[in-house]
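User: Second chain of the day. Same drill as before.
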Amino acid sequence: MAMKEKPVPPHITMVEERGSFKIWIVDGSYIRGHIDEEFTNFGQHFRFPYIPENELWLDQEAEHDERRFFIDHLLVEHRLMKAGRPYAEAIVEADKQERKERRRAGDIRRATVHGAVLPAGETMHEELWKRLENAVTVWIVNGRLVRSTFDIDFTEGGHDKVYEFVPAEEVWIDDAIIEQERGYILLHELHERNRMSMGWPYTRAHAESSRMEYRCRQHPDELHDALAAEGWS
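Assistant: Same format as last time:
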């Protein structure tokens, strides 16, 4: 009888084997805090070299099972990049496969209010987190429906200065993010939006927000003050 593999950080549990691949649920918060702050919902070796070649990594989900979508995506991405295709080309083909699975699951129909021609951003709302003094509202949103309906690459959070489908004066936090990590994502999105409101281009605002998020992950005692500086009180 084969012994079950003992998880080693950031591994949490192995959920499946597909051919030579071992598919692991991993601690995305640990990865973003200790290995790579740009790790998102999933990954494979040729995109993130620290992932073993025979493993596919899926971040643990707080809500809505998207596992099958992500696995199908990763299998295509891994195959094409192993064959020498650049990531920019591989992700296009992988996204096509993932979209097929999402359409088959009926997510767009669920996101469209009866009688409407197209889904509206407001239908993504799950819970109002807070209304800030500057009238910006922060919402926990259904990340699965956002990815299936508007942008398959939406991850962690976003706001109206970047995404045209986010209503004006709104910041969105993906409900797939576990609760103890949401403050760091919130900091990133608020800081980025505030800087873009001052005229900063996205690339500069995103880079600085990523640095600030990473610092607070290393020094969590600074998170409260950092959020207060961005208007969260």
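The chain has eight helices and eight strands.

User: Great, on to the next one.
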